Amino acid sequence: MLFEILRKIQSDVPPLKEGQRDIRQDINSLRNHIHVMQGDINNLHGTMSQVLDRLGRIENRLDLRELAEAQARFEPHP
């Protein structure tokens, strides 16, 4: 009787191992996708930082131009 139980267990193990192998492959695939998405997010952060820097420079230029225009309006002309 014990021999039959061991034989049943032995026949049940290979499908479990195969299922575990499939799950491990799925997890590795998900892990790779997460790494790719993290890289994309990092690229977006870099691009956003560059855009914000450019926007800051544009705003500075506009402020300077607006200041010069305001000063020119209030200066007396000869």
Could you walk me through the main structural features you see in this protein, from its secondary elements to its overall organization?
The radius of gyration is 34 Å and the shape is rod-shaped. The mean pLDDT is 91. The longest helix has 73 residues, at 2-74. It has 78 residues and is mainly alpha-helical. The chain has one helix spanning 2-74. It is 94% helix and 0% strand.
Question: Secondary structure elements and their pairing?
Answer:
Elements: H1 2-74
Brief rundown of the structure:
This protein is an all-alpha fold and 78 residues long.
Helix content: over 70%
Mean pLDDT: 91
Q: Could you tell me how far the N terminus lies from the C terminus, measured between alpha carbons in angstroms?
A: 117 Å
What's the number of helices?
1
Q: Please report the total strand number as a whole number.
A: 0
Q: State Rg.
A: 34 Å
- Sheet-strand content, in percent, reads under 5%
Q: Uncertain regions: pLDDT < 50 for 5+ in a row?
A: none
Report on the biggest sheet: none
- Counting copies of identical and different chains, the oligomeric state is single chain
Order of helices and strands: H
> What structural class do the secondary elements suggest?
mainly alpha
Shape: rod-shaped
Organism: Rhizobium mongolense
Protein name: Putative nucleic acid-binding Zn-ribbon protein
Descriptive key words:
single chain, 78 residues, mainly alpha, 94% helix, 0% strand, Putative nucleic acid-binding Zn-ribbon protein
